[in-house]
Amino acid sequence: MQGVWTPDQIRAAEQRLFTRTPEPAVMRRAAFAVAVQTAQVLTEQTGGVAGRRVVLLVGGGNNGGDALWAGAFLRRRGAAVTAVLLSPDKAHPAGLTALRRARGRIVEATGASPDTAGIGAAAADAVEGADAVVDGIVGLAARGPLRPVAAELVRRVTAPIVAVDLPSGVDPVTGAVEGAAVQAEVTVTFGGRKPCHVLGRAAVRSGDVQLVDIGLDDDLGEPELRVLEAADVGERWPVPRPEDDKYSQGVIGVAAGSATYPGAAVLAAGAAVRTTSGMVRYAGPAADVVRAHWPEVIATGSITDAGRVQAWAVGPGIGTGSSGRDVMLHVLRSGHPVCADADAITLLAKDPSLWDAREPDAPLVLTPHAGEFTRLSGDELGIDRVGAAREVAARYDAVVLLKGNTTVIAAPDGRVLVNDSHHAWPSTAGSGDVLTGMIGALLASGVDAWEACGYASHVHSRAAALAARGTGGHGVGAPIGASALLAGVPEAIRTVRAAALA
Ligand SMILES: NC(=O)C1=CN([C@@H]2O[C@H](COP(=O)(O)OP(=O)(O)OC[C@H]3O[C@@H](n4cnc5c(N)ncnc54)[C@H](OP(=O)(O)O)[C@@H]3O)[C@@H](O)[C@H]2O)[C@@H](O)CC1
Ligand SMILES: [K+]
């Protein structure tokens, strides 16, 4: 599990660290890691470091200081280093001295012979001719998108960019990208990941995030967010133990779909079949279609005949009328864990009396997309998706899985997991029905509700990428539908289990 800390938490931890290690030493350690990473990028792209042209984009704070020191280290490897100063009066003095001593070149962004965009000739030549660029424009103190001169310089870069701490122009806390921002090949960050490395468009802008230990670990405290790694998921994914039988692994009940729209039922029940080896029951008007697709599912037409289950996955395609309401009353009164999606969420939002049917201590998972979330919360979803999910989770005493390119999973006690797969292959109709069935199956097998959401969401996005044979948003792959995603689930489970056993 990876932790993610806010800039305020990082700064507070740094203050404690500086009582043991002087600040300049910490900065040099950070900068050295930037230099090593830049050398690696240069080697990969050009076959070496000596003689290659490195440009440092240097803002007026310590982020720029890191870049200047990194430039001084890169001079030792024989790179030709040019620092482009965006705020010459504020550029980090010790960093400047170090680069000058190492015989790096220093120019001003808006220096002599400016072009029509106001960029000085030396800066323009350097940026356009670079083999690699180090982004030290702004770091933890960033506010808003890149300012015009920085934006213009970044626009002209064609070389790979190594971002110091975070890609300049993104919001460090919310991950919002509201204007010009750096697209990094690699981001070298210090002490702990920040929200922008794992949230939304900023996570994509960060590229490959390399975390460098600067001695902060003991001072960081509880992380603001957590990210599951493949091995975390594989280690806890339920598989049959030698002593298990079909009942001991959990029986899940799926209440989804309708006679007119049986697809949601087929997908949710199929997802449950592929998630665990326990038994799957289906209750609803699509029983015949479900049986035809999944002979292993025990299907019945009415929720009242469903038989015993250990958890319910409810909602997709049940409708928001009186029969949907009856289904909700039944599953909420059962006292078992419930994963409520789609129409189930709309029903809960429009009829608050349904909450009274819920057993107070039974775990409840709500898996809204943005529109359903707004119905639940009563407010438009803004940039701070983490804060919003946390608030709704606390209000309803439920785990809230807020769907989006970054999935945010908030527990009622404030813990938050995020799943950012850096791709959008799961964005296809029916994909949510699959996720609901997966979460329900994990709940039935006894996995904690917050963790179940994290595991299911990780495997779900992995299954989509496997099915699409795709990687990043602009990488290879072909479009998939939810049935293909579902078919990818077993292989996705195999890969996370292999990671855990490795
Ligand atoms: N603490 C430590 O010892 C360690 C810290 N480390 C490093 O320090 C970094 C934090 O440094 P920092 O606090 O000096 O601020 P930093 O992010 O460089 O910003 C500088 C100035 O930029 C400006 N600015 C704001 N928004 C902007 C925008 N959108 N576009 C353009 N400019 C913008 C704003 O100034 P303004 O112009 O508004 O007066 C702001 O004050 C951290 O990320 C890490 O790299 C590492 O060395 C490890 C040890
Ligand atoms: K930066």
UniProtKB/TrEMBL annotation:
Catalytic activity: (6R)-NADPHX = (6S)-NADPHX; (6S)-NADHX + ADP = AMP + phosphate + NADH + H(+); (6S)-NADPHX + ADP = AMP + phosphate + NADPH + H(+); (6R)-NADHX = (6S)-NADHX
Pfam family, one: YjeF_N
Domain YjeF C-terminal: 229-496
Co-factor requirement: K(+); Mg(2+)
Gene3D superfamilies listed in its UniProt record: 3.40.1190.20, YjeF N-terminal domain
CC cofactor note: Binds 1 potassium ion per subunit.
InterPro entries, sorted: Carbohydrate_kinase_pred_CS, CARKD, Nnr, Ribokinase-like, YjeF_N_dom, YjeF_N_dom_sf
Annotated YjeF N-terminal domain residues: 10-222
CDD domains on file: YXKO-related
Record EC number: 4.2.1.136, 5.1.99.6
Residues annotated to bind (6S)-NADPHX: 62-66, 139-145, 165, 264, 317, 369, 433
Binding site for AMP: 403-407, 432
The keyword ATP-binding is assigned to this record: yes
PROSITE patterns to which the protein is assigned, alphabetical: YJEF_C_2, YJEF_C_3, YJEF_N
Residues reported in the UniProt entry to bind K(+): 63, 135, 168
Keyword annotations: ATP-binding, Isomerase, Lyase, Metal-binding, Multifunctional enzyme, NAD, NADP, Nucleotide-binding, Potassium
Assembly description: Homotetramer.
NCBIfam families xref list: yjeF_cterm, yjeF_nterm
Function noted in UniProt: Bifunctional enzyme that catalyzes the epimerization of the S- and R-forms of NAD(P)HX and the dehydration of the S-form of NAD(P)HX at the expense of ADP, which is converted to AMP. This allows the repair of both epimers of NAD(P)HX, a damaged form of NAD(P)H that is a result of enzymatic or heat-dependent hydration. Catalyzes the dehydration of the S-form of NAD(P)HX at the expense of ADP, which is converted to AMP. Together with NAD(P)HX epimerase, which catalyzes the epimerization of the S- and R-forms, the enzyme allows the repair of both epimers of NAD(P)HX, a damaged form of NAD(P)H that is a result of enzymatic or heat-dependent hydration.
Record family assignment: In the N-terminal section; belongs to the NnrE/AIBP family.
Protein name: Bifunctional NAD(P)H-hydrate repair enzyme
Gene that specifies this protein: nnrE
